[in-house]
Design goal:
alpha+beta, single chain, about 35% helix, Rossmann fold, 3-stranded antiparallel sheet, about 110 residues
Length: about 110
């Protein structure tokens, strides 16, 4: 797991645990078979949205890719756009984890 802007890697790791994705996460790249990198961004509710709609929810966007470190091949990529997210980066991290899990399940079933 590579560090990501805005600390998004923490939310991805939490999502992997919550979704019970069968992977072992390491932070030492030398011990990894794959590397997960990515970016994320939060669009906070503006004053008009908070005033007129009473909403403090954010729009979350994130993109990740997983690279096989031995071959250099991208084995998985995913982008998520969560609008009006009450749980912000947590929701985006869980969406990433869910799709990684689906990729693993489809590969082995």
């Amino acid at each position: 797991m590579a560090p990501m802007p805005n600390g998004f890697e923490t939310y991805v790791v939490a999502g992997l645990e919550k979704k019970k994705v069968p992977v072992v996460v390491v932070v030492n790249r030398d011990k990894a078979d794959y590397e997960l990198t990515g970016v994320s961004d939060s669009d906070r509710a503006g004053w008009a949205k908070m005033l007129f709609m009473g909403s403090q929810q954010t729009n979350e966007t994130a993109s990740i890719k997983i690279v096989n470190l031995k071959t250099g091949n991208i084995v998985f990529a995913y982008s998520v756009n969560k609008t009006n997210s009450a749980r912000g980066k947590q929701s985006a991290g869980e969406a990433v984890a869910k799709h990684i899990n689906e990729k693993i399940e489809n590969r082995y079933h």
